[in-house]
Amino acid sequence: MNKKYIWAIGSLLIIASIILYPTNNSNQTLQSSLHKEYPNEWMYNQRAYPDNIINKGAINQARLQRKSMITNRASQENDWEFVGPLNIRGRVTDVAISPVNNDHLYISTAVGGVFRSLDKGLNWEPIFDDIAVPSIGNIAIATSDAQRIYIGTGEANGSATSGAFLGNGVYRSDDGGDSWISAGLENTNHIGRIVVDPTDPDRAFVAATGILYGKNDDRGIYRTTSGGNDWEQVLFVTDSTAAIDVVMNLFMSNPIIVSKIFCVCINTLCVASFARGVHV
Questions:
Q1: d(CA 48, CA 42)
Q2: I need a surface site. Which of 7, 110, 111, 254 has the fewest CB within 10 A?
Q3: Mean pLDDT highest for which of 4-13, 67-76, 77-86, 151-160?
Q4: Cα–Cα nearest to 114, from 91, 136, 145, 82
Q5: What integer best gives the mean pLDDT of the chain?
Q6: How far apart are CA 136 and CA 165, in angstroms?
Q7: pLDDT digit string, tens, across residues 152-188
Q8: Angle at the Cα of 47 (from 66 to 210), degrees rounded to 5?
Q9: Comparison of pLDDT for 198 and 85, the residue scoring more
């Protein structure tokens, strides 16, 4: 066969292979662009865990239970009454009641600070605006001293927008919320829970989330015995594992502290998983 024809046929085959069969890089780019168009199934998978099905029977049972509860209520005296406040910007993240006066109410909000009512919710006043940290995760009032209040800043809500509403640690009030001082843990970013020892207002535990979409060591369970002047990190798992809750058994002489750990999987399809840790 003439060499010219061989070269021509070879050249055509090479051109055809380039057109019909893209390079691996081109194929990966195409697959990546297509992947962005796929629906995000995380919301469904979260609700269908662990069997990947939505239990319709359980939903219907809950509806019937709700109807039965409404029908069988003894009286209408237990109906809820909206008492405000209205200008909270976002959502209520926590509610606290004074241990010595049921008329004294406190609420924290996602991006609106802290409000206090001294008359069962008839009137509300903002008491945290001077601090200029609008996102609040938790309020805790010391049982043994109703004037001692702890505020954990930065809502512990891993949504797409809450990552921007950072806090700067814990604040403490010794006069029922009239004034506040910084009480440490400035780099925790988001605080899900604070519990105070019922017999010692200076002893408290904090569940800190840390950076929501990143890694840092300022997270886990912290303990103070000095009202926030000093903190000890008593439970740490990894630099991407957040603590979102902590509870104390108030009926034991040596209370057990139980914490919930929220493990965020970074840059994978596994968005979140849960594990539990216990600290005594």
A1: 10
A2: 254
A3: 151-160
A4: 136
A5: 77
A6: 9
A7: 998 887 765 555 678 889 999 999 999 999 999 999 9
A8: 110
A9: 198
Residue 139 structural domain: 87-279
Task: Please indicate, yes or no, whether residues 5 and 105 belong to a single structural domain of this protein.
Answer: no
- CATH number of 93's domain: 2.130.10.10
CA distance 241 to 238: 5
With beta carbons less than 8 A apart as the criterion, state whether 167 and 152 touch: yes
In a domain, 210, yes or no: yes
Q: Are residues 159 and 30 both part of a single domain?
A: no
pLDDT at residue number 20: 53
3-17, 23-37, 45-59, 172-186 — which is least confidently predicted?
Answer: 23-37
Amino acid letter, 237: V
What is the distance between the alpha carbons of residues 20 and 273, in angstroms, rounded to a whole number? 43
The predicted model scores a pTM of 0.67
Phi, psi of 166 (to 5 degrees): -80, 150
Token pair of 211, please?
């950076």
With contact defined as beta carbons under 8 Å apart, do 217 and 209 qualify? no
Bridge partners, 233 (sequence order): 222
Amino acid symbol at 190: H
Query: For residue 216, is it within any domain?
Result: yes
Asked, for residue 197, whether it belongs to a domain, the answer is: yes
- Going by C-alpha positions, the residue among 172, 138, 136, 171 that lies closest to residue 154 is 136
